[in-house]
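This entry is retained here.
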Amino acid sequence: MFGINRKARVFWPVCLLIVLVDCSSKSIVVEKLGAPDFPEAVADNVVRFTLSYNPDAAMGLSLGPFSRIGFALAALFALQVMRSLYRRAKEHDTWQLIALALVSGGATGNLIDRIRSARGVVDFIDVGLGPHRFWWVFNLADVGVTVGAALLALAIWRADQQAAPSSGAADFGQSR
């Protein structure tokens, strides 16, 4: 297909879709909700949209006044790591490529927010039961990074398991 290799055909659509859906959803939420910290029930008060701006990182991790630049640099570093893993991935490693695309797309989505606004990353998904919330407020980029990281760990573990030579009873006790 137009001279594009299989790796690119798997990676780029997923990565760009995550960035597009993340940025679009954040724009819609900011436009529709307007003011931060006023929850709007979406699914029977289990899932709410609560506009929030996070100048720090996940779970309240902060670098103080250096959070914006520090976490932007961390995202750029993570994207370089993803680039390196992408280059080493084999064309048939579909799940690893999807995982890399999810992490890369999510990191890019949140990086765009950090660059665009000093207020921080737009978060809006709020999950819990009534007043008892299960997680911090998050966004679709965070979902991409989290699901992608878990998938990547699983894909790498499976690849290691398949590459490891099976040791049988005949090898036991033999010196090398």
Summary: The radius of gyration is 20 Å. Residues 6-33 form the longest helix (28 residues).
